Amino acid sequence: MTKSMQTTEDSIKVFKALADPIRLAIIRYLNQLNHEVSCGEISQVMKISKTSGSYHFKILQEAELISVHKVAREKYVTLDRSTFDRYFTHFWQNL
Amino acid sequence: MTKSMQTTEDSIKVFKALADPIRLAIIRYLNQLNHEVSCGEISQVMKISKTSGSYHFKILQEAELISVHKVAREKYVTLDRSTFDRYFTHFWQNL
DNA sequence: AAGATAGTTCAAATATCTTTGAACTATCTA
DNA sequence: TAGATAGTTCAAAGATATTTGAACTATCTT
């Protein structure tokens, strides 16, 4: 199922989300594990405060680069590879 | 000729450069024309001051998203498509 | 129920990015 | 040569992004 047209603002949101070392490290980590991981685990691995983690996950989520799965207290995230594909593979088409 | 390894900082530089509406508009414009264009022309089209233009071109240049060709007073820029390719097509490999 | 754990929200502090105008260099044109 | 044009540099101002700690909600454990 392909997503419909993306606006410039969507692109900005995605590239802004990618333009930060912590968020890139989170993406790298999720890519290596390639399965759902809790926000708490990632924050620990990245050595950032939970507040800061919460902030970064929100930005990744709003860019649709991760998808979220809440189980009771905990929030699990995975990469949403279709979004990467949409913005990278089809960059020139969507520009 | 392929470029050697890219660091996280290189990636940040590229994604930051892409994370701005003016710079995205410049890229879009250069992509449509698909040939060298002077900074002055672009600044006019984008309706930004020459100082602001100078700033944005520097950022695009340092990210190697454009390449520059100076002719006397004027500076001509083109897209450096190999950089886009390097960061988009090979994103997961280089992560 | 009391205390621990996972995560969010808020506002203040800090850091980073972008725009602005003035002053500057180099080139062009009359 | 004098004046216009293309672009850069600098520092200050303004706008955004990020981090921090405290207070909060919801769930889990004993």
From TrEMBL, chains A, B:
<dbReference type="InterPro" id="IPR036390">
    <property type="entry name" value="WH_DNA-bd_sf"/>
</dbReference>
<dbReference type="InterPro" id="IPR051081">
    <property type="entry name" value="HTH_MetalResp_TranReg"/>
</dbReference>
<dbReference type="Pfam" id="PF12840">
    <property type="entry name" value="HTH_20"/>
</dbReference>
<keyword id="KW-0805">Transcription regulation</keyword>
<keyword id="KW-0238">DNA-binding</keyword>
<keyword id="KW-0804">Transcription</keyword>
<dbReference type="InterPro" id="IPR036388">
    <property type="entry name" value="WH-like_DNA-bd_sf"/>
</dbReference>
<dbReference type="InterPro" id="IPR001845">
    <property type="entry name" value="HTH_ArsR_DNA-bd_dom"/>
</dbReference>
<dbReference type="InterPro" id="IPR011991">
    <property type="entry name" value="ArsR-like_HTH"/>
</dbReference>
<feature type="domain" description="HTH arsR-type">
    <location>
        <begin position="3"/>
        <end position="95"/>
    </location>
</feature>
<protein>
    <submittedName>
        <fullName>ArsR/SmtB family transcription factor</fullName>
    </submittedName>
</protein>
